[in-house]
Amino acid sequence: MNKIQRMKELIQILNEASEAYYQKNQEIMSNFEYDKLYDELGELEKETKTVLSNSPTVHVGYELLTSLEKEAHPSPMLSLDKTKEVDALALWLGNQKGLLSWKLDGLTVVLTYENGELLKAVTRGNGEMGEVITNNAKVFVNLPRKIAYENTLVIRGEAVILYSDFKKMNEEMPDVESQYKNPRNLCSGSVRQLNNEITAQRKVHFYGFSVGDVEDVDFHNSMEEKIAWARNLGFDMVDYNVVTSDTISDAVQHFADKMPEHDAPSDGLVLLYDDISYGKSLGRTAKFPRDSIAFKWADETANTKLTEIEWSPSRTGLINPVAIFDPVELEGTTVSRASLHNLSVMEELELGIGDDITVYKANMIIPQLAENFTKSNHIDIPKTCPACGGQTKVESENGIKTLVCTNEFCSAKKLKLFSHFVSRDALNVDGLSEATLDKMIQGGILEELYDIFTLEQYKDTIINMEGFGEKSYENLISAIHGAKTVLLPNFIYSLGIANVGLSNAKLICSHFEDDFDAIRKADVDDFTAIDGIGPMIGQAMKGYFALPNNQNTVDKLLEYLDIQKREKSSAEKILEGKVFVITGSLNEYTNRKALKEHIEELGGKATGSVTGKTDYLINNDTTSTSSKNKKAKDLGVPIISEEDFIEMIKA
């Protein structure tokens, strides 16, 4: 194969991988393998002095596929040249002072402020054209609502979902894990939503990394001063260290040491000149600016032996392959397993038990397989589900092969469904932990959701279960009887309809005036006519009630349940547009949930974190030195007591 033919082959492979990653939120090859092939292509282009029109070294970003409004960037948003060598960074910096910062792994967004308010937010898109996501940016967790600068201001930065928030969402909504393999993919899907309520639920953060020209402020030609100025306006800017060519090696090590605990996803570092004029004088190439360069971590790898493929079933029916290998030390921890994501990735690596493989930690955190030296390619795909014994089948969508369980009553699916059904915001049945539900499912006591209401016929079995007795059984039955009276939004939420949270269920019920029969018969357009409900939720609602098995389940549940209509609130919306955060103990309200519901009844909103969008922090200990009080003081957010709040709503 000659060099041009190899380039064409590499371009096809890399573009397919990019399309899967950016457009479909799927991963068909590791970052390690992608970088290796990308570098090979770059070297061939240098050797041949040929760059083909569809080469990924020319085109950057994803193509625009959603129905969001499109907008051209005033100037191209270029990618960065990159290196994995610290010495190359020192050579690039020369005798200049530089700023070394995190290279965050999310979705690049450009913010424009006018008259102190957010005018628009546009994604990077393909570098030339982006998608307008202004409504979604307004619900980013830490974005300033107003700033103390009246002229035009452009801030470029990265929208990310923190690892800690990503982990919580996966724990609370297991189906998310099957849809999104990492925070970057989840963030991309969240930021590009048509319904910004979903964006808000995903807790997207924004971290600025550059500030546009500001003609009426003197930054003394220093990028560091420009970043400090933006921070003073309330923006969270990416953390950085000031470096010279003599100190950059220690600085890189400093970031490497912090990487395992760093909460924001990062795939490397960025080095830029502090001298603004010098950086501008260097201009740009067709693809890269010359005032900054990216540093990609030189992944620590280890050779080991594949010992097993574990098949892990999920609530959605996907059965994901997991590589088990002889334990190795990577980035200071022992690892022995790595997700393969889907059959396509496993087959691409040509895996077989006993193969000699190389493993690494993507971004120094997530274990991945890099290479397979043996390539024996003899993994047997299971014909039965490891959770329920049901038949499996291989499905292919957009060229990605997955293994699924065909048994709709699979215990892996059922456990999470039942757990969701009895959770606090659903039917709120005390005494049914996941462990208890699992025993009941395995014992054949629970098959369908409505079986919860027939547990009395299994009294002897339940009393003899581990951790149960006569009293526990009586408490459980009492809780089940109490759960039979339920508000309609909580009932709809309990069904586990994809992407339909309690807040969405409340919006839907309010629109249909708590007429469940009308909701069951509604079309997608009827749902999307509701302010705040997008096509994804509309299709999920319509699709759920169209399935015969779901229709039967709902009909059976209605035989047991007394679904109540909510009392219409006559309260004036005196808190419309106001955002509160509640912390500490309460005296007048039963708990924080009761206070939150009262705020919402009056038109306000209660969130969990103090940000620039917060109007009031409610804390009976107004002089506390807690982190929330400190953040409120830093942002100028008033701290009021419960008594102050009560006086406020009386007035």
Q: How many domains, as an integer? A: 6
Largest sheet: 5 strands, mixed
Radius of gyration: 27 Å
Binned, the helix content reads 25-40%
Text of the CATH class of the largest domain: Alpha Beta
Examine the secondary-structure arrangement and name the CATH architecture of the largest domain.
2-Layer Sandwich
Give a structural overview:
The structure is a single chain. This protein has 651 residues and is an alpha+beta fold. The chain has six domains: 3-48, Orthogonal Bundle (Helix Hairpins), CATH 1.10.287.610; 70-295, DNA ligase/mRNA capping enzyme (D-amino Acid Aminotransferase, Chain A, domain 1, 2-Layer Sandwich); 301-405, OB fold (Dihydrolipoamide Acetyltransferase, E2P) (Beta Barrel); 411-483, DNA polymerase, domain 1; 487-564, Orthogonal Bundle (DNA polymerase, domain 1); 579-650, BRCT domain (Rossmann fold, 3-Layer(aba) Sandwich). Helix content is 36%, strand content 21%. The strands form seven sheets. The chain has a five-stranded mixed sheet with strand order 2-11-10-3-9. Helix 17 crosses helix 18. It is globular. Residues 60-66 and 174-179 have low confidence and may be disordered.
Reconstruct the topology from this structure.
Elements: H1 3-23, H2 31-48, E1 70-72, E2 82-83, H3 86-93, E3 98-104, E4 107-114, E5 117-123, E6 129-131, H4 134-137, E7 153-160, H5 163-172, H6 174-179, H7 183-191, H8 196-201, E8 205-211, H9 223-232, E9 240-243, H10 248-258, E10 266-273, H11 276-281, E11 292-295, E12 301-313, E13 319-330, E14 333-339, H12 343-348, E15 356-362, E16 366-372, E17 392-397, E18 400-405, H13 411-421, H14 434-442, H15 459-463, H16 470-483, E19 485-487, H17 488-494, H18 502-511, H19 516-521, H20 524-528, H21 535-546, H22 548-560, E20 562-564, E21 579-582, H23 592-601, E22 605-607, E23 616-618, H24 627-635, E24 639-640, H25 642-650
Parallel strand pairs: 2-11, 19-20, 21-22, 21-23, 23-24
Antiparallel strand pairs: 1-6, 3-9, 3-10, 4-5, 4-7, 7-8, 10-11, 12-13, 12-15, 13-14, 15-16, 17-18
Helix pairs in contact: 1-2, 13-14, 17-18
